[in-house]
Write a structure and sequence with these properties.
mainly beta, 1 helix, 4-stranded antiparallel sheet, globular
């Protein structure tokens, strides 16, 4: 069952790695505290088309903890965005336009070109404002 995101009744929506579909899924908080390797995708259903802010984190939004890796990659369906992670940053934010409907969402934290693991926490917020014009230029 896909997780509904972008619905006005729960905006933003927080996804956790405990809901990944995949081989290596951290199943308790001690694995997260050890930065256990693993990755998977979330089955999501975007409730409405429009502008979204998608924020990748290693810990919940209320915890300031440096995000692993120097680059972050976000994949939604067949679209992909990549950006650098500022040194010491606790989050990386992507702004993009997304069509309504079901899809898969997956994240990758990388050290250069080497994939370390997925982001343990992802916050998805429907945004009233349009993304910055260059945001979709990061699509690879």
């Amino acid at each position: 069952v896909p997780l509904i995101v972008g619905d006005p009744r729960e905006n933003p929506t927080l996804l956790t790695c405990h809901d990944w579909h995949g081989e290596q899924v951290p199943w308790d908080q001690t694995m997260i505290s050890r930065n256990a390797p693993g990755n998977g995708f979330w089955a999501v259903d975007f409730a409405r088309s429009g502008a979204y802010r998608i924020t990748l984190r290693d810990r919940p939004p209320y915890v300031r903890h440096p995000i692993a890796g120097r680059r972050a990659r976000l994949v939604i369906g067949d679209r992909e965005w990549v950006q650098d992670v500022p040194s010491g940053a606790s989050a990386v934010e992507f702004r993009l336009n997304q069509a309504a409907g079901p899809t898969r969402l997956q994240t990758f934290l990388m050290d250069g070109q080497t994939e370390l693991r997925g982001a343990y926490f992802v916050e998805i917020a429907y945004a009233d404002e349009a993304p910055h014009p260059t945001d979709d230029s990061r699509t690879r």
